[in-house]
Automatic annotation (TrEMBL):
<comment type="similarity">
    <text>Belongs to the short-chain dehydrogenases/reductases (SDR) family.</text>
</comment>
<dbReference type="InterPro" id="IPR002347">
    <property type="entry name" value="SDR_fam"/>
</dbReference>
<dbReference type="InterPro" id="IPR036291">
    <property type="entry name" value="NAD(P)-bd_dom_sf"/>
</dbReference>
<dbReference type="InterPro" id="IPR050259">
    <property type="entry name" value="SDR"/>
</dbReference>
<dbReference type="Pfam" id="PF13561">
    <property type="entry name" value="adh_short_C2"/>
</dbReference>
<protein>
    <submittedName>
        <fullName>3-oxoacyl-ACP reductase</fullName>
    </submittedName>
</protein>
Length: 268
């Protein structure tokens, strides 16, 4: 299926690896020009090279989509300024930032809460604010926020993430249904469950050290607890992101799309 977005330009955050990179890959395959952002310059450069090779291969003789990268912390004003110095207007924005650390809410002070809100609520709002009016003027725009399945099914040790991401979810529920909805702009949230990424493996390694259980045993137990009996892949996550950016998804807005292999047990 042709998603009808070839030639558009996307900003993809946290795109040096994992789910962000999966989104960038899917968009490049659709012919979208991308600017990818992440803090780690070395990993980001490697990701950009792989995307450029993918773009050249998928172009089949035509001009390939462009791939640019900005090594910056998108959760800071300076990081966002560095991105917008490269380009002001985007047709597609994929917001993504690493989740805050787990822990006991009794141990979190104001500084910890502000850091979580900055990364997982206020940064996406700043990116929406900076780009949505231009999208509306041009009659097309897609904003996809990578949040977490914990928005639907909170995890007790992830209170910082539960709170900050739920705040973003409430904000999006309102702004997605404002006047921009009639101007060709959609805003949706993608809620990943357990995906086979470095972040998942690092969390399991920490869990293995804390509990004294072997990594393989924890890995198998977690995987077998998912009805699909497997972890998701960044590639399939990216394909769903690309669909949300498509012309076919123009009537889909203000929604929370849960990708978790059936792990969430609720009806709604």
């Amino acid at each position: 299926m042709d998603f009808g977005i070839a030639g558009r330009t996307a900003l993809v955050c946290g795109a040096s690896k994992g789910l962000g990179l999966g989104c960038a890959q899917a968009l490049v395959r659709e012919g979208v020009n991308v600017i990818i952002v992440a803090r780690g310059a070395e990993a980001l450069q490697a990701a950009a090279r792989s995307l450029q090779a993918m773009a050249a291969e998928s172009a089949a003789g035509a001009a390939p989509p462009s791939v640019r990268h900005v090594a910056a912390d998108i959760t800071t004003e300076a990081g966002r300024a560095a991105v917008f110095a490269q380009q002001q207007d985007f047709d597609i924005v994929v917001t993504n930032a690493g989740g805050p650390p787990p822990g006991d809410f009794r141990d979190w002070d104001r500084k910890a809460w502000v850091a979580a809100l900055d990364a997982n609520m206020l940064t996406p709002i700043e990116l929406i604010k900076a780009t949505v009016d231009g999208m509306a003027q041009r009659g097309y725009g897609r904003i996809v926020n990578i949040t977490s399945s914990s928005v639907k099914s909170p995890i007790d040790i992830l209170g910082l993430s539960n709170g900050a991401r739920s705040g973003l979810t409430g904000f999006v529920a309102g702004v997605a249904r404002s006047a921009i909805a009639a101007q060709g702009v959609t805003i949706n949230n993608l809620l990943p469950g357990a995906f086979d990424t470095d972040r998942l493996r690092h969390a399991m390694e920490a869990g293995a050290k804390k509990t004294g259980r072997g990594f393989d045993a924890l890995y198998e137990a977690r995987r077998n607890g998912i009805p699909a009996r497997r972890f998701g892949t960044p590639a399939e996550f990216g394909e769903v992101c690309a669909f949300l950016c498509s012309m076919q998804a123009a009537y889909l807005t203000g929604q929370n799309i849960l990708l978790d292999g059936g792990a969430y047990p609720g009806t709604f």
